[in-house]
Design goal:
The structure holds 2 protein chains of 2 kinds. Chain A has 7 helices and 12 strands. In chain A, strands 2-1-5-3-4 form a 5-stranded mixed beta sheet, with helices on both faces. A 3-stranded antiparallel beta sheet of chain A has the order 10-11-12. A two-stranded antiparallel sheet of chain A has the order 6-9. Chain B is an alpha/beta fold. Chain B has a 5-stranded mixed beta sheet, with helices on both faces. Chain B has a 4-stranded mixed beta sheet with strand order 2-1-3-4, with no helix packed on it. In chain B, a hairpin with a 5-residue loop joins strand 9 and strand 10. In chain B, helix 3 packs antiparallel against helix 4. Classes of the chains: A alpha+beta, B alpha/beta. Chains A and B meet through helix 2 and strand 7 of A and helix 4, helix 5, helix 20, helix 21 and helix 22 of B.
């Protein structure tokens, strides 16, 4: 049967007392967004399969024993959802406190904004609270991995795997608090299957993955987003037509991204598009 | 699957042979490509890694690389899987390794960790605590439980599920099982037909015995009614809840019953295949169940049962983590819904049942669902197995109709002056002496805010210390969290830190409030039951026993 003949069913649910109609198959997050109800997300990416691991998007669903993740729970007709109850706010705040107390969020603007919004106090667990600590990995010229900033959102693993790149250079290793993103046997990126597309950097929400240039500039204290402008162009390397966003600071390209909603790239690039800009700088 | 960059180090001949013994001789290739037939075999990753470790004592780079290559699994993913399971070692270690249980029941019996031994979570040998588990790698690898001798059942009267065990029916003999009435229930099921079997099970009001107490008939009906015709039944024998050993006793001493009951489950739900997933630490159960599967082939009428063995991960007792593990992945629980009856093992409708639940199905068919429902109470039909350990004179497995009181059970087992009882294991709750007249039913325990869980009853007498038990429980959940979701991954660490401060008499300001909030986020926002219950015992001890106040 042709899918054209099966018009998508609409279903109605209630979020924070407001009725909302969404397509069957939508998530509670979709319904929240339709109602312009702000819902925090960290592991969710618009171009990635939801893994619902950060749990910051949880909402209260009447009839459910526990809170449910808005990002992946499918909306059902008649659902009654509360996004701003005391129970929801407490869990969101605690998730942020647990993350903030264990991970370096200094380059994670979204997480920092949520911490402020939810009045989270990550230092409540004391100075002796265990933290995720890893040496910064600088093993190639293109990007840097600082897993002490990693909240284990799985986005890089998904981008490297079946969602985008199908390279499978990295996966989650270890268990519990020791779980971390790793290549096989923790080999360096040059020894791994990595193809340096940098699509993991593009989806990383915390700056745990960062281009070498950004990392070096931050180390030198010269990284300044207030002085950066974004110039949109089309990649000149091949005929695919990827949109590039050149982040330019003081006349120099400091980063290259592509918009998530671009129908050619969905935010992805290859090594050339993302890193092959230095020829521009040769005079 | 794209071309993969593979690890360069080759396996040793011994490792290659051990892995080939699991995966079959490698097909002829041009030297680079894996045969297509192997690419769908990712589910054999854990058996392959286990085989390599049993041969040489650890999972070397060569073995990891060879297993990855044979199965077309990206090495990074294979590494992620290997590092997930506590019993797989990515570092070279001696061929002979002993794991000494330091968990609740063994701690009460003076557990010690010898030089060179590995401390271990509960080994499911609580009735003979303190216990150890030894693995010996080599050409003829073996594992053993210590002490090796299983004590006889402490109870002789009124047994149903344990009847054959009490009668001493030879657990290795098909003939003995048949002579004791074995396979009559399967014959009867075939006569009734699948729908009538499910009706009987529904009428019996049988509730799952793994801890969640879900109605078995409802589960089977839901699988049977799926449009998808490829379906599975899985026996969850990953019994790892601290203090639980009932399923081990059943599998070691009455393994044919498991095979018969799982076949009935397959017949009723329309499944083509059954899996029995047994935790690694139960070597005798592996041997006995495999023997029963092999010896029963003629009885099963083509129904296939495959034994799968874990590798040290409590979380794999969570049903969706168990699927992930069978599929050759990290044992990370999936979000539910969709539930296993719709999307289960290999994405297909699946009925997962605990060992004890399946044993009850045989009883349902033997006496009929209506008759079965007469035993026990209105809300809890049948009998229940209780795992008694800790400060009792006669530890072991007891079977009582639902509705017996905790006091009656403790008298049977010979408990003295009781300070506290842990019901339901680490995920359960502590009760004080004030609750000794609690009826052991689902409805009564629920009303009291506790749980029967997997039937754990660990007794703490007047002399026993509770704070070390709380610290051990906190350590257990911190170790066993899969690490996937934030509330559990970090919450279990913060819980342990707070308890250590409280135990040392150096709490932070508002420590109990913080502990309560951590408990709330774990219960409310964790993905699976592990995180959702990780604070139960601690909270109950604080509330019911006034520990720390």
């Amino acid at each position: 049967m042709s899918t054209l003949l099966t018009a998508k069913k609409m279903i109605e649910l209630t979020v924070d007392g407001q009725p909302v109609r969404v397509f069957d198959g939508s998530t509670i997050l979709d319904a929240c967004r339709q109602l312009e109800i702000e819902t925090p997300t960290l592991c969710y990416g618009d171009t990635l399969t939801p893994v619902n691991v950060c749990r910051v998007c949880v909402v209260e669903l009447e009839g459910a024993r526990t809170l449910v993740p808005a990002c992946s729970r499918k909306a059902e007709a008649g659902m009654v959802v509360h996004t701003d109850s005391e129970r929801v706010r407490t869990s969101r705040r605690l998730v942020l406190e647990l993350l903030g107390s264990s991970v370096d969020l200094s380059t994670a603007p979204e997480a920092l904004a949520y911490i402020e919004e939810y009045d989270a106090k990550p230092d409540r667990f004391g100075a002796d609270a265990a933290r995720v600590e890893h040496e910064v990995k600088v093993d190639n010229d293109l990007y840097v991995r600082d897993y002490s900033k990693c909240i284990l959102c799985y986005r890089c693993v998904e981008a490297c795997g079946v969602d985008h790149q199908n390279t499978f250079a990295i996966a989650v290793a270890g268990r519990g608090f020791d779980a971390h993103i790793s290549t096989e046997l923790d080999v360096t990126l040059p020894e791994s299957a990595c193809v340096y597309c940098g699509n993991c950097i593009a989806v990383c929400p915390t700056g745990a993955l960062m281009s070498k240039r950004e990392y070096d500039m931050r180390q030198a204290g010269t990284w300044d987003e207030s002085k950066q402008e974004v110039v949109t162009t089309v990649c000149a390397y091949c005929g695919v037509g990827c949109n590039l966003e050149l982040h330019v600071q003081e006349g120099a390209i400091v980063n290259v991204t592509s918009p998530d909603d671009h129908d050619v790239t969905s935010g992805n690039l290859c090594i050339k598009g993302r890193f092959g800009y230095r020829f521009v700088e040769s005079r | 699957m794209p071309d993969l960059k593979l690890l360069d180090t080759p396996p040793s001949n011994a490792e290659r042979a051990a892995i080939d013994a699991v995966l079959g001789t490698p097909p002829e290739t041009n030297g680079h490509r894996t045969a297509r037939s192997d690419r769908a075999s990712r589910h054999l990753l854990l058996p392959a890694l286990r085989a390599a470790q049993r041969r040489v004592g650890w999972v070397s780079e060569g073995a990891l690389g060879y297993a990855s290559r044979r199965l077309s699994v990206p090495p990074a993913e294979a590494y992620g899987v290997a590092t997930f399971y506590a019993l797989l070692s990515l570092e070279e270690q001696p061929a002979d390794v002993t794991h000494a249980c330091t968990d609740l029941s063994c701690a009460l019996k003076g557990a010690t960790v010898g030089v060179g031994e590995h401390p271990s979570p509960c080994l499911g040998l609580c009735e003979r605590a303190p216990a150890k588990y030894r693995t010996v790698a080599g050409e003829t690898p073996f594992e053993e439980q210590l002490p090796a001798d299983s004590p006889p059942l402490p109870q002789r009267e009124g047994l149903r599920l344990l009847r054959r065990i009490a009668d001493g029916v030879d657990p290795t003999s098909l003939d003995a099982y048949v002579a004791a009435g074995g396979f009559e229930a399967l014959a009867q099921a075939r006569e009734l037909g699948p729908d009538a079997v499910i009706e009987q099970v529904t009428e019996s009001k049988l509730l799952g015995r793994g801890g969640a107490a879900f109605p078995t008939g409802v589960k089977w009906r839901a699988v049977r009614e799926q449009a998808e015709e490829t379906r599975y039944v899985v026996c969850n024998a990953d019994e790892s809840e601290p203090g639980t050993f009932k399923d081990r006793v059943l599998m070691e001493s009455d393994p044919f019953a498991l095979v018969e009951a799982l076949t009935i489950a397959g017949f009723a739900t329309g499944a083509q295949k059954g899996y029995a997933y047994i935790r690694a630490e139960y070597p005798l159960a592996h041997e006995r169940v495999q023997n029963a599967i092999d010896a029963s082939a003629a009885q099963l009428d083509g129904f296939k049962i495959e034994l799968r063995i874990g590798a040290g991960a409590y979380v794999c007792g969570e049903e969706t983590a168990l699927f992930q593990s069978i599929e050759g992945k990290r044992g990370e629980p999936r979000n539910k819904p969709p539930f296993p009856v719709e999307v289960g093992l290999f994405g297909k409708p699946t009925a997962v049942n605990n060992v004890e639940t399946l044993f009850n199905v045989l009883e349902v068919l033997r006496i009929g669902g209506a008759e079965y429902a007469q035993t026990g109470t209105e809300g809890s039909a049948g009998t229940r197995l209780f795992c008694l350990s800790g400060c009792v004179e006669r530890p072991g497995l007891y079977e009582l109709p639902f509705g017996a009181t905790l006091r009656e059970l403790l008298e049977l087992a010979g408990a003295g002056a009781v300070k506290a009882v842990l019901l339901g294991g680490a995920a359960g709750a502590f009760v004080g002496p004030d609750l000794l007249d609690l009826k052991l039913t689902h409805e009564d325990t629920r009303a009291a805010g506790v749980t029967l869980g997997s039937g754990v009853v660990i007794v703490y007498d007047d002399e026993a210390e509770l704070v070390p038990a709380l610290l051990r429980i906190a350590e257990f959940f911190r170790d066993e969290s899969c690490g996937q979701c934030v509330p559990c991954r970090v919450g279990t660490v913060r819980q342990e830190e707070a308890l250590k401060r409280l135990a040392a008499g150096r709490p932070h300001d508002g420590e109990l409030h913080t502990l309560g909030e951590v408990a709330q986020v774990m219960r409310d926002a964790s993905i699976c039951g592990l995180g959702q219950t990780a604070a139960n015992a601690v909270e109950s001890a604080i509330a019911n026993l006034k520990v720390f106040s």
